[in-house]
Design goal:
The strands form five sheets. A nine-stranded mixed sheet has the order 4-3-7-10-11-13-14-17-18, with no helix packed on it. It has a seven-stranded antiparallel sheet with strand order 8-9-12-15-16-19-20, with no helix packed on it. It has a four-stranded mixed sheet with strand order 1-2-23-21. Strand 5 and strand 6 form a beta hairpin. The protein folds into three domains: 104 residues, no CATH class; 188 residues, Sandwich (Jelly Rolls); 73 residues, Phage tail protein beta-alpha-beta fold. The protein is built from nine helices and 25 strands. It is globular and about 70 Å long. 29% of the residues are buried.
């Protein structure tokens, strides 16, 4: 059925699909109709087509990545345009095809998309991933520490009871037990702490896979000799639990406990007063002390805030788990909510100087592998927000208004 109203982002996604040869016949006809009635859409199509030729196909790599973001953001927000035709922004610089920012300011919410521009923007000091360390404490009073860089992976030493080994250059760790000495293993609790700016994957001794987000800590034994397999989480982690019906797997957070047999789920407990459990596969039971158990089905999440009841709702797997691919997708989040994410992912302190910014909401995504400056510039260009840097601290303020009329007569 033909649309009578559409968003700028919808048109942009159709153009990307056409460039990549992934557009359906129906959508191709729709795009042709739009371009026949909207000169701005047609100019945007010509610019991006020229860019594809000028970069010898290099642009297609960026376009394919951007199409992924478009599909994510299509779920983030569907903001209708009140009048037709749609007015796509006309880029003003020679990099207009790469920047191609889709700006839409509506009811106090800033919506933005941006492409990787191939331009070397200044990198904010203090956000390099080099020399980050993960500290697995494997015995009381003993810490084995290794430094991580994307180029030179760490080598962890054999502690006698356990071996910490590096699997590949993407910061995947495995904690492996020496099975021939299982009777002698010290079952004291051990702690793995992941710093800001990186995330880690590792395997527990039972075969359970754990993916820890930045600034997260997991306490666990290297074997599970009892009737249950229990771990303690601070932060966020994705668990793929090894199936064992005789030994339930339990994740404890500050507010809840989650029990599983063999399943895959995400637990977010960054907020000390709130835990969100999102079930991808299998089933889990979550509870708070003596309260009633809450049984989750795949596609649902349980949100518990201290002093309140559980809230059960559906969740978007692509959005909730986007952090595992180095992306933080968000919808209608305040700067106060986004600041802790940026602190964890970039290791810099965020301070909001202007009170009005506390209530302004944003929808979009952050890519951890890109310099933070790219994201901040997008915020500054599409909203009333501005920022400045003092050392390793970023301050947010209201953008100063410059008179465009006065500039015309200079």
């Amino acid at each position: 059925m033909r649309r009578t109203k559409y968003t700028k982002e919808y048109v942009y996604q159709l153009i990307l699909e056409k460039l990549l040869g992934e557009i359906s016949r129906e959508d191709d006809i729709e795009l042709e109709r739009i371009m026949q009635h909207d000169v701005h859409a047609y100019i945007c199509w010509l610019d991006m087509k020229d860019a594809q030729t000028a970069t010898n196909g290099e642009f297609l790599d960026d376009a394919r990545a951007e199409l992924t973001w478009c599909r994510i953001t299509d779920k983030l927000s569907k903001i209708p345009v009140e009048e037709e035709p749609v007015l796509l922004p006309l880029p003003s610089s020679r990099w207009r095809w790469a920047v191609a920012a889709m700006l839409l300011i509506c009811t106090g919410t800033a919506y933005f998309l941006y492409l990787s521009t191939k331009t070397h923007l200044p990198i904010i000091p203090g956000i390099s991933m080099n020399n980050q360390s993960v500290t697995p404490s494997v015995q009381p009073g003993t810490t084995v520490q290794g430094h991580f860089t994307p180029v030179s992976p760490p080598n962890f030493t054999d502690t006698g009871k356990t071996i910490i080994t590096h699997l590949d250059s993407s910061a995947i760790l495995a904690a492996q037990l020496k099975q021939d000495s299982i009777d002698d293993v010290n079952t004291e609790w051990n702690t793995l702490t992941v710093p800001a700016k990186v995330d880690y994957k590792f395997d527990l001794s039972d075969g359970t896979e754990v993916h820890l987000n930045a600034a997260s800590t997991l306490r666990f034994p290297f074997i599970f000799p009892g009737k249950t397999r229990e771990v303690y989480l601070e932060g966020e982690a994705y668990f793929t639990v090894a199936h064992n019906p005789k030994q339930p797997f339990i994740v404890h957070t500050n507010t809840t406990s989650i029990r599983a047999l063999g399943t895959a789920f995400n637990v977010n407990s960054y907020d000390a007063d709130q835990t969100t459990t999102s079930l991808v596969q299998g089933s889990v039971v979550t509870d708070v002390g003596d309260s009633l158990d809450v049984v989750l089905k795949p596609g649902y999440q349980a949100i518990y805030k201290a002093g309140e009841r559980f809230k059960i709702k559906r969740f978007d797997e692509e959005m909730t788990l986007s952090w595992r691919n180095g992306i933080y997708a968000f919808k209608n989040k305040t700067l106060k909510e986004l600041a802790p994410v940026m602190e964890r992912w970039y290791g810099m302190k965020m301070i909001i100087d202007a009170t009005p910014l506390l209530t302004q909401t944003f929808t979009g995504s952050i890519e951890r592998e890109k310099p933070l400056d790219i994201f901040l510039r997008s915020l500054r260009e599409t909203t009333t927000l501005d920022y400045y840097i003092l050392g390793s601290t970023i301050h947010f303020k209201i953008k100063e208004v410059v008179s465009e009329v006065a500039d015309m007569y200079d």
